Amino acid sequence: MIPPHEMLPSFSPGATARLHLRPLVMNEARELLAVVSASREELARFMSWPREFHEVAQAREFVRAGREGWIQSRTVRLGIFERDTGALVGSAELDGIDARRRQAELGYWIRTDRCRKGYAAEASRAMLHFAFEALRLHKVRADVAVGNFASARVLEKLGFAREGTLREDRAVGGVFVDHWRFGLLEREFLPAPVAR
Ligand SMILES: CC(C)(COP(=O)(O)OP(=O)(O)OC[C@H]1O[C@@H](n2cnc3c(N)ncnc32)[C@H](O)[C@@H]1OP(=O)(O)O)[C@@H](O)C(=O)NCCC(=O)NCCS
User: Fold this and answer.
1) Mutate to test the pocket of ligand 1, among 116, 127, 140 (most ligand atoms within 8 A of CB)
2) pLDDT for res 196
3) Atom of ligand 1 nearest to the CA of 142
4) Residue among 130, 109, 135 nearest 32 (CA)
5) CA 189 to ligand 1 centroid distance, Å
6) CA 196/CA 191 separation, integer angstroms
7) In whole angstroms, what is the distance from residue 107 CA to residue 87 CA?
8) pLDDT digit string (tens) for 54-100?
């Protein structure tokens, strides 16, 4: 596998019909903090980190860690920007990229005032296109807290199958909760046209 950061100039998740996906830069840390703060209640229902995310230094660390993961070929973490307004509307990532197993984990969040517009599915489809076409992965998995029906629906729209339930697998707000494991194989992925 070619390391993701060496691929960036030639192949990136890039643009979809309504969105731009690209790594966040340091001077966007304040905007990131504002977006997470405004969406904290919804984000924190099913993810732990937004609860603790209050300082611009933490937003900078989010950006730095994303870039570091990229350089180490471990993570592709991209900000999701609305093409019409340029606004940051969320982020998506492929984490735990394992070249030997040819597998990674998909994650995403969308700011609350932009939810239910199909943005999570649209951004994730671009991430999957990158995962299967550029990184040549065989499988992408996603773990969703039991009861997170919006996220489960996003994955279903993308063709993921629910493979089982992981018992008390991750803590959300300090409590270990069951998670549904979803998986999508390369041959099952149906890429929609990607705008360039
Ligand atoms: C989950 C999340 C990313 C969805 O983002 P989004 O941009 O609204 O997603 P989409 O619009 O692409 O699709 C959402 C789908 O879920 C449906 N949905 C939304 N809330 C729902 C609910 N409470 N129950 C059932 N379905 C729901 C929507 O109707 C839509 O399906 P449709 O297109 O068939 O109508 C967003 O709500 C979010 O960031 N939540 C908090 C963080 C999170 O849970 N991240 C995922 C961790 S695994």
Assistant:
1) 116
2) 47
3) 48
4) 109
5) 20
6) 14
7) 20
8) 999 999 999 999 999 999 999 999 999 999 999 999 999 999 999 99
- Across the range 171-183, mean pLDDT stands at 96
- Protein residue with least CA distance to atom 18, ligand 1: 150
Residue 42 pLDDT > 80: yes
Domains present along the chain, CATH in parentheses: 4-138 (3.40.630.30)
Candidate of 16, 49, 106, 115 to mutate for ligand 1, largest count of ligand atoms within 8 Å of Cβ: 115
* Spacing, Cα 165 to ligand 1 middle (Å): 19
Tell how far the Cα of 106 is from the centroid of ligand 1, in angstroms. 15
> pLDDT tens digits, residue range 97-137?
999 999 999 999 999 999 999 999 999 999 999 999 999 99
**pTM, two decimal places:** 0.94
pLDDT attached to residue 4: 64
**Close Cβ partners of 184 (under 8 Å, ≥ 6 residues apart):** 128, 139, 140, 141, 155, 158, 159, 160, 161
Strands (E) in 146-187, as ranges, are 161-172, 175-185
